[in-house]
Design a protein that fits this description.
single chain; alpha+beta; Elongation Factor Tu (Ef-tu), domain 3; Helix Hairpins; six-stranded antiparallel barrel
Length: 344
């Protein structure tokens, strides 16, 4: 009798356990199917991520930003120095140009003056030659006068003092004739120099050529400086764009923080329903008993890759920054944005 009752109770218990197991399995399958269906159709789920300042990508990005900033500072300093040097070379070029113009005008005036002076000196040399020729004729008479003085002195017709005076006068006349000849030669030589090539003009032109050479070197230096400045400005613009693009990066934001920063991965399929300041919900069992745990902060555009937490497939998307009131929510497998996935 006892054995019969035991067998009957065992069979009943087995049947109840079998029914419970069957319904449990059906509920599990249904729950799994519901989760799969939910995540297949929902566009509001996100995957929370916690990024600390010591993250490898954060450290690599920080080093890159520092290197870019150093290059930027170096280029900006080099460009400022080049601009100062160019301004100084521009002032020197203007000064040399003014000096060159003045030298050319001075050379032109000197040439004109030389032509006028040469013409006058030529005329004076011709006149001097005529005077010397006339004086030469008189010099022949002075020789006869000297002989007359000697005869008169011997004849006692004049005193020795008077003879000495006349001889001195005749010697002075001869000296004046010699000086006149020398003056004629000097005048002709001066006229030839003025009418051919004046050394002062040559010196002026040599200075002008030296200034022209320096101006040519300045032009080359200014042109090279302008090209370097243009190249530096292009590099500065590129680096600034790169730094600005780097700032629009979740790892840069994490690098500026003192502690780990809360982000979330959003697939491209879900990004269209994500907006700044939208509410964020955390749910039990991934989709029920949801509660609000924060809002969406900044949205980033740089592409990231992650593994879908439900389907375990590679997924492409971007990061968003979260402002969570409950820090524990970042540990959840997924969160929802905008509204609860179900009505509760």
């Amino acid at each position: 009798m006892i054995t019969k009752l035991f067998r009957k109770s065992f069979i009943t218990t087995y049947r109840i356990a079998a029914v419970i197991s069957l319904y449990g399995l059906l509920i599990g399958i249904g729950a799994y199917a519901a989760v799969m269906a939910l995540y297949s159709t929902s566009r509001s789920w996100i995957v929370p991520v916690l990024i600390s300042p010591s993250n490898d990508k954060v450290l690599a990005l920080t080093a890159q930003v520092v290197a870019s900033q150093q290059s930027l500072n170096s280029l900006m300093l080099s460009t400022a120095n080049l601009r100062e040097a160019r301004a100084e070379m521009g002032r020197r070029r203007a000064l040399l140009g003014y000096l060159l113009e003045q030298l050319k005008k001075a050379a032109t005036r000197q040439r004109a003056a030389n032509v006028a002076s040469g013409t006058q000196l030529t005329r004076l040399a011709q006149q001097k030659h005529a005077d010397v020729t006339a004086t030469q004729a008189l010099l022949a008479d002075s020789d006869r006068s000297a002989q007359d003085v000697d005869r008169n002195l011997e004849a006692g017709l004049m005193t020795r003092f008077e003879a000495l005076q006349q001889q001195t006068a005749l010697a002075q006349f001869r000296n004046a004739y010699t000086d006149a000849q020398i003056s004629e030669v000097v005048l002709r030589d001066s006229a030839r120099q003025k009418l051919s090539t004046d050394l002062s003009v040559v010196d002026t032109m040599s200075k002008a050529i030296a200034i022209q050479s320096e101006l040519a070197q300045l032009e080359l230096a200014i042109r090279a400086g302008d090209e370097t400045i243009a190249s530096n400005l292009a590099q500065i613009a590129n680096i600034q764009r790169a730094i600005q693009a780097t700032r629009d990066n979740p790892y840069f934001v994490a690098a500026q923080a003192q502690r780990a920063t809360e982000f979330a991965f959003v697939s491209y399929d879900n990004r269209s329903v994500i907006a700044p300041d939208a509410p964020v919900y955390d749910c039990a069992l991934s989709f029920v008993a949801c509660r609000r745990v924060g809002t969406v902060g900044r949205m980033f555009s740089e592409e990231e890759r992650a593994v879908n937490p439900i389907f375990k497939t590679d997924t492409r998307g971007t990061f968003i920054q979260l402002s969570l009131t409950d820090g524990e929510a970042v540990k959840s497998k997924t969160l929802f944005v905008g509204r609860k996935p179900l009505l509760f």
